[in-house]
Amino acid sequence: MFQIEKLQFKYENGTKALDGVTLSIKRGEWFAVLGANGSGKSTLARHLNGLLLAASGRVLVDGREVGDYSDIKNLRRMVGLVFQNPDNQIVGNSVEEDVAFGLENLGVPRDEMRRRITEVLGQVGLAGLEQADPATLSGGQKQRLAIAGALAMQPQALILDEATAMLDPAGAAEVLSLLGDLHRQGLTIVMITHNMSEVVAADRAAVLSNGQLVFCGTPQEVFAAGDMLRACHLELPPAAALGEMLGIPGCMDLTELLERLQVEVTE
């Protein structure tokens, strides 16, 4: 769905955020983009729906270069983007009003708008809170509301830029569970994160460092590359770190580690 070719981008202050990044993301894939602060991962996310345009190189969405979309609203409807702080995306005085905001801007008919609002609030677990003030919601509920606003546009892909970074463990778990449901329904998920434990659910993951792509592979392949991750200022999750110490690299979680340990002992 996304094809990124030799992408370069420099901010006005001279900071080179992306330096020749090339990668592809398949339709229906859960793709994680990993990196420490300043690695360029959020800059990459903003190129996927045209918030930023390439200085050189190109980004294609469904075979069409981002800069060729005559109506950028169509691209942003196709590719939803959810930011780290949900308060920056919530604009309505009620949950229902917030989800309706983007639909009103698109001129969606009232009956269709009502149908979509009911559908997406059910999807994200906020049914029954239509009239609630968003300020009264928990952090996890606010982030699910932000996701609902994006889903109401009926996107083909959802980009999440550190969407769980400001949440407590319970709120983060709510969001990750929702993303799992959406992925199983066929939605393309691109998750920008520095939290290695969130990579386990992904089909593939890319690692950025200093604006460059340094690795791309399955989560197990990423977790097996401990030295590379540490060089990029990323830490292995506990199960993978323990597995590395025991000579069993690439463990995704404690269950896998125990299973592989049992095999080692048996052999």
**How much helix, percentage-wise, in residues?**
25-40%
| Oligomer category | single chain
Number of helices: 10
What's the β-strand tally? Answer: 10
What is the helix/strand order? EEEHEEHEHHHEHEEEHHHH
Strand order of the biggest β-sheet? 6-7-8-3-9-10
Largest sheet: 6 strands, mixed
Structural class: alpha/beta
Radius of gyration: 19 Å
Beta strand %: 15-25%
Residue stretches low in confidence (pLDDT < 50, at least 5 long) are: none
GO molecular function, one term: ATP binding
Family: Belongs to the ABC transporter superfamily.
Domain ABC transporter: 2-235
Keywords: ATP-binding, Cell membrane, Membrane, Nucleotide-binding, Translocase, Transport
Walk me through the structure.
Helices cover 38% and strands 22% of the residues. The protein has 10 helices and 10 strands. The mean pLDDT is 91. The protein is globular. Helix 3 runs parallel beside helix 5 and helix 5 packs parallel to helix 6. It is α/β, with parallel strands linked by helices and 267 residues long. The strands form 2 sheets. Strands 6-7-8-3-9-10 form a 6-stranded mixed sheet, with helices on both faces. It has a 4-stranded antiparallel sheet with strand order 2-1-4-5, covered by helices on one side.
